[in-house]
Amino acid sequence: VFQFVSDLRDLDVELGLMRALGERNRRPVSVSLIQTDNQPDRWREVLAQNVREVERASAALLRELRPGAGR
Question: Cα separation of 10 and 8, whole Å?
Answer without folding.
Answer: 6
